[in-house]
Amino acid sequence: MAILVVAEHDNTDLKDATHKTVTAAKQMGGDVDILVAGKNIKDVMAQAAKIDGVRHILGVDHDSLTRQLAEAMQAVIVPLMSEYDAVIAPDTTAHKNYMPRVAAKLDVMQISSITGVESADTFIRPIYAGNAMATVKSSDAKKVITVRTTAFDAAGEGGSADDKMLDAPAAPTTSQFVSEELTKSDRPELAAAKIVVSGGRGVGSAENFAIIESLADKLGAAVGASRAAVDAGYVPNDYQVGQTGKSVAPELYIAIGISGAIQHLAGMKDSKIIVAINKDEDAPIFQVADYGLVADLFKAVPELDAAL
Amino acid sequence: MKVLVPVKRVLDYNVKARVKADQSGVDLSNVKMSMNPFDEISVEEAVRMKEAGTATEAIVVSIGPAKAQETIRTALAIGMDRGIHVLTDEDLEPLAIAKILKAIVEAEDAQLVIAGKQAIDNDYGATGSMLAAMLDWPQGTFANTVETSGGSMTVKREVDGGLQTVKLTLPAVVTTDLRLNEPRYARLPDIMKAKKKTIDAKTPEDFGVDTTPRLKTVKVTEPAGRSAGVIVENVEELVASLKKEGVI
Ligand SMILES: Cc1cc2nc3c(=O)[nH]c(=O)nc-3n(C[C@H](O)[C@H](O)[C@H](O)COP(=O)(O)OP(=O)(O)OC[C@H]3O[C@@H](n4cnc5c(N)ncnc54)[C@H](O)[C@@H]3O)c2cc1C
Ligand SMILES: Nc1ncnc2c1ncn2[C@@H]1O[C@H](COP(=O)(O)O)[C@@H](O)[C@H]1O
Fold it and tell me: Fewest C-beta in 10 Å: which of A34, A112, A299, B69?
């Protein structure tokens, strides 16, 4: 069996999500290759080659792949699948975007956001915002899989895979990149951070979010948020943790002024230690918190910040 | 431009799913069902396009049991022009749904499909992109803002790093994210009017689509539970506990 892992990267750095996806691929058994599709990807390919237990690194370097738009990624991956039994990628927005296109072209059903590998054709995935876990067995000849990376450990380094460059297919013309507004931050990435400090509607305003950020910086943490905080414009959309935002599973998750709706819990309940600070002792977040503090956040958070 | 909006009837987002004792699935008897929240956003967007004159006709499609008609009526009350109900009692996979939708798009000669980014029951997040690939159309997923001008559409997308804007040549598929718009509530007179709008009745067989599932559900189980921990009295106690855990 041959499995193609699609690398998560920004044309400069290979992301940890790739290492975690490799772990899931290895659990399926068989040869694991990594595809790096992008622009000026030599460094990324070199980083990928170091991942332990990988056979080949395939590179496709082309202007049309700079932003890895869905139509272009489909054009790269579908022809490669004559050589592979499975293609597997992290369930980040970059890959969620095109993987269903690949599945449709191969006439197979995508297995989305798996959290466990039972065998080469049987997987575990959360459904209903993680309130149920489905074990599904695929009868498709080829598997198209996305991985909830928080559920897998990162594959180690020490490998020395060989690499080869492939020709880029004709670039699609019906879809064009226009611009991007990326959130700039010196803090760790939300999905990879060891500590996440999240604020909700209770924080009250974008200005007030400074106390959350200050606490996060004290802890070297990433900043997250509930949907309500994002919708209210306190923080950018990519801070959203939950069923329809990002999934995180840090060592420590601190939820501040967040009630604990099903959709929010879906994205953080696999964190090792959960702390909740909320002034309402009946808030559902306390039902999943290891440590709960019933307090006004405007008093408790600065106090906590000062105590660290 | 004709716009097609596929909507799914799902367990209401406020209701906590309960796993059946025999592990065959989630118990959907006697629970509140509603339109998938992302599909409400799609319907709202299509209706706004009609109001703005960019859409000439807005068609709502639901594939599901007899009760899916109620979901279609809800969309008609919000302002969709007519409905298509594809009757099936099976919870079809996105692959089959996309194939049926493709046949409908072609029969209707629609130029735009606005789907939800994910159905909150199965959490697949696959149908919209699958449909786009089957039609060989471009796509703008996780849409935060859309703007049509002439033969193209500019879509601002919610991505992991922030926002990304792409320009698509129509026809295209868009999938909606939460912040695209705020869906309105249907007004009573519109609910009455919606009763007179037509809903075409179809079945998957009408489209010659093989809907055999590719994924077999072996079992559905409860997730590993998390129990409530301790309530600490004050910040000092919290800090001490976290130090003891070794996480700070
Ligand atoms: C389709 C769909 C998808 C969704 N996806 C997501 C998702 O991915 N992520 C997500 O988070 N949500 C999601 N939601 C929204 C979710 O249902 C909740 O509405 C949201 O999580 C609530 O955010 P919140 O807890 O910040 O706000 P609220 O529920 O309003 O809670 C605010 C909390 O702050 C507390 N508080 C207020 N003031 C203070 C104070 N001074 N000190 C201490 N505590 C205070 C209150 O007691 C309250 O518990 C989704 C909803 C839908 C329909
Ligand atoms: N049974 C269905 N009937 C109509 N539309 C559907 C159905 N299932 C999924 N969809 C559409 O596809 C989107 C994504 O669903 P999914 O791929 O299942 O997560 C939904 O938001 C709907 O727009």
Answer: A299
Query: Which residue carries 């001008």 as its tokens?
Result: B149
Sign of CA dihedral B172, B175, B177, B179: positive
CATH number of A2-166: 3.40.50.620
Q: Where does the pLDDT of residue A205 fall: very low under 50, low under 70, confident under 90, or very high at 90 and above?
A: very high
Ligand 2 atom, smallest distance to B127 CA: 17
For residue B128, the ligand closest to its alpha carbon is 2
| Residues spanned by the domain of B91 | 2-245
**Strand A31-38 to strand A2-6: parallel, antiparallel, or no bridges (unpaired)?**
parallel
Q: Whole-prediction pTM value?
A: 0.97
Minimal CA–CA distance to B4: which of B85, B44, B60, B63?
B60
> Maximum CA pair distance of chain A?
60
Any atom of ligand 2 within 6 Å of the Cβ of B204: no
Measured between CA atoms, the residue of chain B closest to residue A141 is B214
Total domains present in chain B: 1
Mutate to test the pocket of ligand 1, among A211, A215, A258, A286 (most ligand atoms within 8 A of CB): A258
A93 touches chain B (CB under 8 A): yes
- pLDDT by residue (tens digit) across B18-31? 999 999 999 999 99
Per domain, the residue ranges of chain A are: 2-166, 190-307
| A190-307 has the same fold as A2-166 | yes
Instruction: State whether B248 and A219 contact (CB < 8 Å).
Output: yes
A288/B228 touch (CB, cutoff 8 Å), yes or no: yes
pLDDT for B228 beyond 90: no
Determine contact, residues A240/A246, Cβ cutoff 8 Å: yes
Closest ligand by atom to A225 CA: 1
A190-307: CATH number:
3.40.50.1220
The interface pTM score, or ipTM, of the predicted complex is 0.97
